[in-house]
C-alpha cells in the first residue's frame, strides 16, 4: 500500500538553506597578469597552506605581437584588442578588491619601438600599470612556478618556457642539494639566479638564455616557405642555431638524473595529443611525464595531418593550430640536443611564478610550495 501524502504543515519538505559562499578577504588576495606576444592571462588567488587557491582567472589570445617582426612596432589593431582584454582584467581586479598585484609584459613590449606609448595608453584607458620585465626575471619566474614538478631524483634540470615571442632556457645543477630539499631549493631562486649566502643548500644555475624566438616570431620568420615539412625542418634548424651560446649545448647528458620541465601551450598541447584528449583536462596534463620518443611520435603525427588536418583536430584547438608547428619545431630541436625519458609537462608558468614570488616575499606560504 502506497504511503499517504502528508497534509497541513508537513505537506512540503522543509527547504534546507545552504550558506552563500564566503567572499574571500580582499586583503588576502594576490593577482598576477602576464601580457605576452600572443596571449593576455591573469590569475587572482589567495594563499592556502604551501600553495594558493585560484579565485578568478582570465585568458585570451590578443596577438599583441602580430606584424612586429615586419614593422618593429605594435599595430593599432593589436593594441586595441589588448586594451579590450585588459579592461576585463581591470573589472575583475576591481570586483575582487585586489590591491597586491604584479602586471607584467614580456617580449613584444621589450622589442616594440612604441611599447612605452602603449603602456601609457593602457594606463590612460584602464588605470592598470604594466611593467615590462627583463628576460632574466621572466626565466626565473618560469623556473619557480615549476618547482613542485621537480623530482627528488633530479641532479641536472633544464626548465624550458616556450612563449609567443621568446623562449627561455635555464640549466640548474642540483647535485649538491640533498634529495628531499631539491624542489624547495628551486623555489628559493625567486630571490635571483645567484641569491645571497643562505644556510640552506643552494641550486646552482649553470647557465640561462633567452632566445628571441617563440611560437609566433619563429613562425613569422618562415611564413614565406610554402611546403609544410620544409618549413618545419627550417624552423627547427634555425632555433637550434640560436642555442649555440648556451653553455651546456654541446655536453652529452646522461638520461639518468636528468629532467626537462617544459612550460608552454605547445608542451601541454603535445601532451593532450599524446593522451588522446578531445577536451583539454589540466588535471591529466600538468605533471605528466613523456619520453623523447613519445613526443616525436606526436610531432610526426602533426606533420602527417598537414595544415588542414591540424585545423580540424580537436586535440590541437582553433587557437593553437596556427602556432603548433613552430612550437613543435622548438621542442624537437631541444630534444635533439638533450634526449630525455623525463620531460615533465607543466601547465603553469609566469603567472604562477609571479604569485609564488609575491606570496613568498610576504611570508604567507607555509615552508615554500611543498
TrEMBL record:
Gene3D superfamilies: 3.30.420.40, Exopolyphosphatase. Domain 2. It comes from the Bacteria. It holds the Pfam family Ppx-GppA. Residues 44-359 form the Ppx/GppA phosphatase N-terminal domain. Residues 1-24 are annotated as: Disordered. SUPFAM superfamilies: Actin-like ATPase domain. This is Ppx/GppA family phosphatase. It comes from Ruegeria sediminis.
Amino acid at each position: 500500500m502506497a504511503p499517504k501524502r502528508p497534509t497541513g504543515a508537513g505537506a512540503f519538505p522543509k527547504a534546507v538553506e545552504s550558506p552563500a559562499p564566503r567572499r574571500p578577504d580582499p586583503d588576502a588576495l594576490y593577482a598576477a597578469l602576464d601580457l605576452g606576444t600572443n596571449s593576455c592571462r591573469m590569475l587572482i588567488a589567495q594563499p592556502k597552506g604551501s600553495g594558493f587557491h585560484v579565485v578568478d582567472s582570465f585568458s585570451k589570445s590578443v596577438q599583441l605581437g602580430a606584424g612586429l617582426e615586419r614593422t618593429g612596432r605594435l599595430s593599432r589593431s593589436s593594441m586595441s584588442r589588448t586594451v579590450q582584454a585588459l579592461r576585463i582584467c581591470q573589472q575583475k581586479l576591481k570586483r575582487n578588491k585586489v590591491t597586491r598585484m604584479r602586471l607584467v609584459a614580456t617580449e613584444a613590449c621589450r622589442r616594440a619601438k612604441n611599447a612605452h606609448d602603449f603602456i601609457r595608453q593602457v594606463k590612460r584607458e584602464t588605470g592598470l600599470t604594466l611593467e615590462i620585465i627583463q628576460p632574466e626575471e621572466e626565466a626565473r619566474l618560469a623556473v619557480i612556478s615549476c618547482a613542485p614538478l621537480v623530482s627528488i631524483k633530479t641532479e641536472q634540470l633544464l626548465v624550458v618556457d616556450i612563449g609567443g615571442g621568446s623562449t627561455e632556457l635555464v640549466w640548474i645543477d642540483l647535485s649538491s642539494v640533498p634529495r628531499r630539499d631539491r624542489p624547495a631549493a628551486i623555489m628559493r631562486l625567486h630571490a635571483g639566479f645567484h641569491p645571497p649566502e643562505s644556510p640552506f643548500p643552494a641550486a646552482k644555475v649553470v647557465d640561462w638564455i633567452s632566445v628571441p624566438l617563440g611560437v609566433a616570431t619563429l613562425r613569422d620568420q618562415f611564413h614565406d616557405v610554402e611546403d609544410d615539412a620544409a618549413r618545419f625542418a627550417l624552423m627547427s634548424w634555425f632555433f637550434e642555431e640560436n642555442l649555440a651560446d648556451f653553455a651546456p649545448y654541446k655536453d652529452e647528458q646522461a638520461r639518468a638524473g636528468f629532467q626537462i620541465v617544459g612550460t608552454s601551450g605547445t608542451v601541454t598541447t603535445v601532451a593532450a595529443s599524446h593522451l588522446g584528449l578531445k577536451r583539454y583536462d589540466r588535471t591529466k596534463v600538468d605533471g605528466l611525464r613523456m619520453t623523447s620518443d613519445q613526443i616525436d611520435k606526436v610531432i610526426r603525427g602533426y606533420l602527417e595531418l598537414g595544415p588542414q588536418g591540424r585545423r580540424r583536430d580537436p586535440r590541437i584547438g582553433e587557437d593553437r593550430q596556427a602556432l603548433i608547428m613552430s612550437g613543435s619545431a622548438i621542442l624537437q630541436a631541444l630534444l635533439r640536443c638533450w634526449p630525455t625519458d623525463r620531460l615533465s609537462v607543466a601547465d603553469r608558468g609566469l603567472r604562477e611564478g609571479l604569485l609564488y614570488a609575491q606570496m613568498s616575499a610576504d611570508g604567507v606560504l607555509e615552508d615554500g610550495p611543498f
